[in-house]
Amino acid sequence: MKMILLRKFRVLILMVFLIACSMHIMIDLLPKLERHSNSGCSCSHTPSEEPQSWGKQSWPNKHTLRILQDFSNEPSSNVSSLSLERIPVTGDKTQALRRLEHYGQRGDRKRQFIQDAAVTKNMPARSSRLSALYDHPLYKRSPPPLTDEDTLFNVNTDIRFDPKAADQEWNGEGNMDEFSPTGELTADTYPNWLRFHIGIHRYELYSRHNPVIDALLKDLVTQRITSVAMKSGGTQLKLIMTFQNYGQALFKPMKQTREQETPPDFFYFSDFERHNAEVAAFHLDRILDFRRVPPVAGRLVNMTKEIRDVTRDKKLWRTFFISPANNVCFYGECSYYCSTEHALCGKPDQIEGSLAAFLPDLALAKRKTWRNPWRRSYHKRKKAEWEVDPDYCEEVKQTPPYDSGTRLLDIMDMTVFDFLMGNMDRHHYETFEKFGNETFIIHLDNGRGFGKHSHDEKSILVPLSQCCRVRKSTHLRLQLLAKEEYKLSMLMAESLVRDRLSPILIQPHLDAMDRRVRQVLNVLAECIEKEGYSYVVEDDLQRDQGTDHAHTAPRQR
What we know:
It comes from Scomber scombrus. The chain is of the alpha+beta class. The protein has 17 helices and 15 strands.
């Protein structure tokens, strides 16, 4: 009798094990089975209507995606950005160029388009303070005439656009049948993300009054999202979103409210990334006249229709769940804050986020990643060399590329930019490889700015106080923004009100920027008193146009 019971017990255990294995296999294959069974159905379930019906949703059908853009901010030291992404297989560059051929144009017409955008008068109506700012002589300086070596794209000059090659329409971006007398599409009919890419050159990401930028900002919040995937690498969750017109953007979801400050016990490297900081950084960069931040706009996203239902990323899809408050949530995969305890939840399925337009794909326009000389230690106890050596800048000025050209002055501009935001997380920066060392720094990844309005982190200004160098144009603009009629806080408020998620910053953050402008000017005043005006201020306004990036050695003490 005992033997019979023992055998039955073993059989029961075996059956339970087999059932568990079968269920595990079925759960793993569920998305594929649903995709196969629903392949003929174009309907999708609305999350707000059936928030609990996860098993009823259909897995998104695969469709061809152009890989024409990339947003790289992975850490590395003095290496090409290409090495920071997945190494492309042979032929990737050819394939990317072929995709670009659908939207290409002759080189001479392209350069004319860039020049026309730089001088166009069709800029959108601005508020009075912004209009007065952009009418000021400091904001009238134009870049020198552009050559093939100065434009990011000057290859494939015989490219023609083939309208039959496109399988989707460019809604709201011109008429597909609008051809020039020669049978070519005019530049105005190109999608705005491509017009933005075409306009990049040695001296700036976009021209001061380029109407394409405002059109691109509109696209970021209105274009239909067709695909979503998690961005690999990074400490916090970021999503790559592809739009109906093939444009792409980096989505950073909302993690904190506008009123929340970074806790005082948080280290800078464990702070949250804020979506509103990305939006505000873009507007601040424009007001400072740097134009080195890719266009960023805020958007309210439906987490079910615009993320879960369109993603082909299984790892992302499996992290969706319904919270006890009946809100749609997900958490994805990343190094920090990607768990059920740190899930991103909608209300009930709507979530705010920032969308940053992608730069051109690395296969078409390589970027070089540089280690910031004033990089922090990213350690709880250790200090970086610049924090203990007051003469650290003298060593930097003898090291390429800071020993010639304007790279050191670009670092000073970036220092001012970061201090005004309170951003301590500038460990690396990027430049376009084509332009060598004679070009600007791209200000990417600004999500850790605007964390504390009640505290001014003076250590961010150490590069400025150690080197005592600044462009004359930057110095004069800071003096201008300190005046009551051009007050930075007022200009930022007027610029940010146009964003869909306005208000982007609460008033204490705006007031903090005014306070910090005065502190930057105080540091420069001390430098001038100690070293003299001619040593501290580099006169970039009196130089002949085009020589701002000449090989001139930094001044030594």
